């Protein structure tokens, strides 16, 4: 969420929570007008936005909107990599929000800790350790939630939490090491690698092993960091890993002769490690690694019915109706879809699939019974996220090659049936 939008949302949240402003109505309106004007003049520039918001706080030091404004300042500081302001406002925001109530807050927590460990200042390191331990506790609390957010599958959610724990432990290791507790830092870095193998965890482990004088093992971890399949490792990170790897290897062996074998061994080691993790994920959830429509398997809403393997629909034109129990237009749209479906009942190459997108699956069976819907359909099981279905109702028409031929978002009652038939015919015409 962009900072200006975030600010507006937070200000709206204050009003929704019934919080009052201890100013007379005229003064409040004057402040709101000044704030909107300042943000308007700042435009999309995060630097100008910071200046405008800080000037507003100076002009209205007693504002009840301070919390929202400071959170917007944090987001702008993240955009501009402004570590001093990120620390200044970020620690305040985190104090006001003791629970991991949003993804944005977890990002703030991560970035504030990174800013604090950017140098070896002891006071900052102590504060970073406290926040890192909170980070770890927050991840554990999120793990206890019954349902994954954002249509993540359980296996994907577990994977995301493993990654988050690995980041928290790596930051804890750096902060702890900055306090001079080197052996403890090495253990924490090792736990990061165990939680989820990442370039950050590997190089953090290598760093503290080097500080402890165990350069041979450090070489292995730097080689792991250099070869690991990790989207968060940049080209610059790999260049530094390569330099440190070469320096340490040369220091121990007199030259880089044989280093290539060590790198190949690391590649084999990390590849096997990640393959094993993927196998575990696949065993837990067949959709956890799916990246194409045909790779998904959708569980039936009716527990006695078989799951739908989407690859079995290859060569067909598929109409996917994404609906939810809370979606009022979906109820009006359902009989219209059934009318169109009846017109294709003798067409074996056209398949209609109802896909439920509720976060809470327990709501679906009672809803179907109440509505007397016969076609129970399937749960989306991560497919909505893969197809970027962000609005309900959405009807997708897939052509025989499995590509999205049409995306109908929302509901236009008068034209819906004709529009859907047109989209189906367009998909059938594709070769």
Secondary structure topology:
Layout: H1 3-16, H2 25-42, H3 46-59, H4 66-80, H5 83-96, H6 103-116, H7 122-143, H8 154-178, H9 182-195, H10 199-211, H11 215-227, H12 235-253, H13 259-284, E1 297-298, E2 308-309, E3 317-323, H14 328-343, E4 350-356, H15 364-371, E5 378-379, H16 383-386, E6 394-398, E7 404-409, H17 416-429
Helix pairs in contact: 1-4, 2-3, 3-4, 4-5, 5-6, 6-7, 6-8, 7-8, 8-9, 8-10, 9-10, 10-11, 11-12, 11-13, 14-17
In short, what is this structure?
By secondary structure, the protein is of the alpha/beta class.
Describe this entry's structure for a reader:
The chain is α/β, with parallel strands linked by helices and 431 residues long. It has a domain at 293-429: Glutaredoxin. The protein contains 17 helices and seven strands. It has helices at residues 3-16, 25-42, 46-59, 66-80, 83-96, 103-116, 122-143, 154-178, 182-195, 199-211, 215-227, 235-253, 259-284, 328-343, 364-371, 383-386, 416-429, and strands at 297-298, 308-309, 317-323, 350-356, 378-379, 394-398, 404-409. A five-stranded mixed β-sheet has the order 5-4-3-6-7, with helices on one face. A two-stranded antiparallel ribbon has the order 1-2. The longest helix is centred in the middle third of the chain and has 26 residues, at 259-284. The chain is globular, with a radius of gyration of 27 Å. Residues 1-25 have low confidence and may be disordered.
